[in-house]
Write a structure and sequence with these properties.
Layout: H1 16-35, E1 46-51, H2 57-68, E2 72-76, H3 89-97, E3 102-106, H4 110-119, E4 124-128, H5 134-148, E5 155-159, H6 165-177, E6 180-184, H7 193-206, E7 210-213, H8 216-220, E8 225-228, H9 240-248, H10 255-259, E9 267-270, H11 281-290, H12 299-302, H13 309-327
Parallel strand pairs: 1-2, 1-3, 3-4, 5-6, 5-8, 6-7, 8-9
C-alpha cells in the first residue's frame, strides 16, 4: 500500500483495501506503542493543525501521534490564523505548505478542506468538517475489529441525527467495509439522498445492506453495535435544542433499547463528548430547562460493560498516526 503524498479528506476517496490497510497499520503502531517500541518514522518533519472548531480528542490525537512519529507540531486555534479573514484559503494553503510537511484542518464546510488540499503541495488531513469525519471512522472500525475480530457482516445501528458528519461517514465506512448499516431516526434526519444512492452502489460491491428506520425496536434487533452522537452539532444555534430533545428522545440509547437487540454481545459506541449526565455546563443547563438527566445516551449504558467509548477514543490517536505515517 503506497499512500505517500495522498490527502485524507473523506473515505469516499479511498478503496476498501486502502482503508483496511490503514486500520492494519494503526493496529501495528498501537502494538508498538504498548510494547514501548519507538516508531519515529518521520523524524524532523513538521505538521500544522488548523482548528476552526475546538476539540479534545482530535487535537490530542494529532499532537501525541505527531510526537510519536518524531515530528514537531504547531497548533493554530480558532483565532490563531488569518485564514478566511485577511488571507484566502488558497493563499493560506500555499504559505503553510512551504513551511510544513502536512496540514490538518478541523472546522466547517468540506469545501474548505478540499480547497486547502487543492492548493497545497503537502498532504492535507480532515480532522472534521460539517459533512465528514473520516479519522473518527477509522478509529471506530479499529475498535469494532478489536472487539469482534472482524468487520464484514456485522450489524451496525446509528441512532439519532444522521444528516451530518457522523451519520454520513459511518454510512460510507460501513458500505465500504461490508458492515450492515442502519440509520434510525425520524425521516427528516435521514442522510442526504444522493449520498445514500452512492453508498448503495458501494454496498453492492461489499455485500453490505443499508436500512433507514424510524422504529427503534425494529432497528436494533440483532445489532452488534449501537452508535450515537450528540443531538446538536458544534456551530448550530442554541434554539434547536428544544426541537432535537423533543424529536430525538425516543431514539435515546438506554438499557431498555440495548436489551432489544437480543444479543448479550452488543456494544455501545459514541464519538464523544457525550451528554450522559448533568456534569457539564450544557448538560446541566438542558437538564434544568427540560427536566431530563441525560440526552442521547443514559448514564447506565455509557458506564456499562457494553460501552467501549474510551477504547474508541484512544484509537483516534493510533489511527490518526497511521494516516500521517502512510501519507507523509
Amino acid at each position: 500500500m503506497n499512500l505517500q503524498g495522498r490527502d485524507f479528506l473523506k473515505l469516499l476517496d479511498y478503496t476498501p483495501e486502502e482503508i483496511l490497510g490503514l486500520i492494519d497499520l494503526a493496529a501495528d503502531l498501537k502494538a508498538k506503542k504498548k510494547a514501548g517500541i519507538p516508531h519515529r518514522m518521520h523524524e524532523g518533519k513538521n505538521i500544522v493543525l488548523l482548528f476552526e472548531k475546538d476539540s479534545t480528542r482530535t487535537r490530542c490525537a494529532f499532537e501525541v501521534a505527531g510526537a510519536d512519529l518524531g515530528m514537531s507540531v504547531t497548533y493554530l486555534g480558532p483565532s490563531g490564523s488569518q485564514m478566511g479573514k485577511k488571507e484566502s484559503i488558497a493563499d493560506t494553503a500555499r504559505v503553510l505548505a512551504g513551511m510544513y510537511d502536512g496540514i490538518e484542518y478541523r472546522g466547517f464546510g468540506q469545501d474548505i478542506v478540499e480547497e486547502l488540499a487543492k492548493y497545497s503541495k503537502v498532504p492535507v488531513w480532515n480532522g472534521l468538517t460539517n459533512e465528514y469525519h473520516p479519522t473518527q471512522i477509522l478509529a471506530d472500525m479499529l475498535t469494532i475489529r478489536e472487539r469482534f475480530g472482524c468487520l464484514k457482516g456485522l450489524n451496525f445501528v446509528y441512532m439519532g441525527d444522521a444528516r451530518y458528519n457522523m451519520g454520513n461517514s459511518l454510512m460510507v465506512g460501513c458500505a465500504k467495509l461490508g458492515l450492515n448499516f442502519t440509520a434510525c431516526c425520524p425521516e427528516k434526519y435521514f442522510p442526504d439522498k444522493a449520498l445514500i444512492a452512492k453508498c448503495q452502489e458501494i454496498a453492492k460491491e461489499s455485500g453490505a445492506a443499508l436500512r433507514f428506520e424510524t422504529d427503534p425496536a425494529a432497528a436494533v434487533k440483532d445489532a452488534d453495535v449501537i452508535y450515537t452522537d450528540v443531538w446538536v452539532s458544534m456551530g448550530e444555534p442554541a434554539e434547536v435544542w428544544e426541537e432535537r430533545i423533543r424529536e430525538l428522545t425516543p431514539y435515546q440509547v438506554n438499557s431498555q433499547l440495548m436489551a432489544k437487540t437480543g444479543k448479550a454481545t452488543t456494544v455501545f459506541m459514541h464519538c464523544l463528548p457525550a451528554f450522559h449526565d448533568l456534569k457539564t455546563k450544557i448538560g446541566k443547563e438542558m437538564g434544568e430547562k427540560f427536566g431530563i438527566d441525560c440526552m442521547e445516551v443514559s448514564d447506565a449504558v455509557f458506564e456499562s460493560e457494553q460501552s467501549i467509548v474510551f477504547q474508541e477514543a484512544e484509537n483516534r490517536m493510533h489511527t490518526i498516526k497511521a494516516v500521517m505515517a502512510a501519507t507523509l
